[in-house]
Amino acid sequence: MDILIVIVACVIVLSARNVEARTGHHHHRATKSQCIQYSAISCRAHSASITDFGGVGDGVTSNTRAFQAAIDHLSQFELHGGSQLFVPPGRWLTSSFNLTSRFTLYLHKDAVLLASQEESEWAVIKPLPSYGRGRDTDGGRYISLIFGTNLTDVVITGDNGTIDGQGQVWWDKFHKKELTYTRPYLIEIMFSENIQISNLTLIDSPSWNIHPIYSSNIIIQGITILAPVRSPNTDGINPDSCTNTRIEDCYIVSGDDCVAVKSGWDEYGIAFGMPTKQLAIRRLTCISPTSAVIALGSEMSGGIEDVRAEDILAIDSESGVRIKTGVGRGAYVKDIYVRGMTLKTMKWAFWMTGDYGSHPDNNYDPNAIPVVENINYRDVIAENVTMAAKLDGIAGYPFTGICISNVTIEIAKSSKKLAWNCTNIAGISSSVTPTPCALLADQGPGSISACNFPTDSLPIDNVEMQMCSYTIEQP
Ligand SMILES: *[C@@H]1O[C@H](CO)[C@@H](O)[C@H](O)[C@H]1NC(C)=O
Ligand SMILES: *[C@@H]1O[C@H](CO)[C@@H](O)[C@H](O)[C@H]1NC(C)=O
Ligand SMILES: *[C@@H]1O[C@H](CO)[C@@H](O)[C@H](O)[C@H]1NC(C)=O
Ligand SMILES: *[C@@H]1O[C@H](CO)[C@@H](O)[C@H](O)[C@H]1NC(C)=O
Ligand SMILES: *[C@@H]1O[C@H](CO)[C@@H](O)[C@H](O)[C@H]1NC(C)=O
Ligand SMILES: *[C@@H]1O[C@H](CO)[C@@H](O)[C@H](O)[C@H]1NC(C)=O
Ligand SMILES: *[C@@H]1O[C@H](CO)[C@@H](O)[C@H](O)[C@H]1NC(C)=O
């Protein structure tokens, strides 16, 4: 019903403008207005274009002030129907800007946000409380390009518009150890709820691409992420201490994990104590030759639970699903369900690492042992794989309840490695080729469906989108 009404409204606006153009003073000038429609968790009563605030899309002029002025102005509508900011075709150079609540940022398909390469333009903010320090350096970190904190109802979308992180200068500084602070991410939303990030292309991020943290009710859909496969730490999507998230229809080529599920680092993450849970990942395509398709950790000190991944396609990636943890992390990785993976050219189909190391400082608790349990992988076809699996738990604290069923892995003819190498784990298997390690006790072919996958849906699956519109007037 709502959808129909909004579409009709869009058409009426269009024809009214056309009439005006034909009968008004300016009928000698061809005026055309274009109605843009997009789906979103909520539509907005007020609209503006970045050009209304002095924005210049020439690829040279800085638009940082224009973006911040536009959003500061639009924030007055937070309690009056919300607002949308339209970014027309052009190359919009900008440094970081902060979002507001009940707000939509919409990028036209030919709009490119170009992240400033000028380090001095980036504000430095405090480390994340669950990390205790920056990921690249001790101390603070550069604010992300598109940043929001303590917000509700935020949409970042577009008709596949582009956000270009221009990361090369940051990668060079990182390699030369010239950075004073941790590199910025492209999008970071903290302490927020009801977030949609959809139908955009993100390229060459200085570091991580999309980082929702301490947030809930998040939809990430139709995102293309592209970065050179050797670029440092260009993780795709990192849900971090988040509840109720769905990531769907994304295509990621990057230099680090395509999706990295996180929840804080050692003693800082344990003290903060906020897990990532209720996460669905569907229809993900990943190319990441040196990293995982889906990583759980390594920062998982608030816990990771109830992750459901299905319909995953990976080409030329290091590992399928990877659990990364170690002594000092504490917390748990549990109730992980994966089904329907097609993997082509991989080093490992499955990988679990119980001695990941990488500590924020030397104050981690050597008695903080992570618990890894109830890990389910089923319906997997893999080809050209070097090793089927390397599954290493922690001595004295095995990873338990591992279930692998209905899996066919074709080992590359050139591989001379052991197909399965398991230490400090326990679990079962059924209908797995090649024959798994003895620690995964074979239940026989009758148990081909042995590994669980939840049949209920997550609350985020019940969120319905509306059809929203924006009318552009082009002189
Ligand atoms: C993304 O774009 C597709 C069409 O390309 C459209 O069907 C879909 O509704 C859009 N989704 C969102 C969440 O914007
Ligand atoms: C954006 O938010 C951060 C964190 O709250 C703050 O440090 C920064 O000053 C804000 N930037 C602007 C331009 O208001
Ligand atoms: C944001 O929310 C967090 C958690 O509720 C709170 O600790 C923090 O003070 C809030 N920050 C602002 C700027 O309101
Ligand atoms: C969006 O743009 C990227 C980069 O040009 C392209 O690879 C991708 O196929 C586009 N997605 C859609 C849905 O058109
Ligand atoms: C198999 O994997 C190797 C790398 O391990 C790669 O060089 C080769 O091209 C792959 N073959 C096919 C048919 O994809
Ligand atoms: C086994 O996995 C394949 C996909 O790899 C799937 O098509 C098939 O339905 C699965 N079989 C069972 C019994 O679940
Ligand atoms: C199996 O894994 C263990 C633990 O990582 C390692 O020490 C051992 O060398 C591996 N064995 C083979 C044959 O690769």
From TrEMBL:
Signal peptide per UniProt: 1-21
Picking any one GO biological process from the record gives: carbohydrate metabolic process
For this chain, one GO molecular function annotation is: polygalacturonase activity
Domain Rhamnogalacturonase A/B/Epimerase-like pectate lyase, first and last residues per copy: 49-96
Per the UniProt record, one Pfam family is Glyco_hydro_28
**Family statement:** Belongs to the glycosyl hydrolase 28 family.
- Give the protein name, as stated in the record: Rhamnogalacturonase A/B/Epimerase-like pectate lyase domain-containing protein
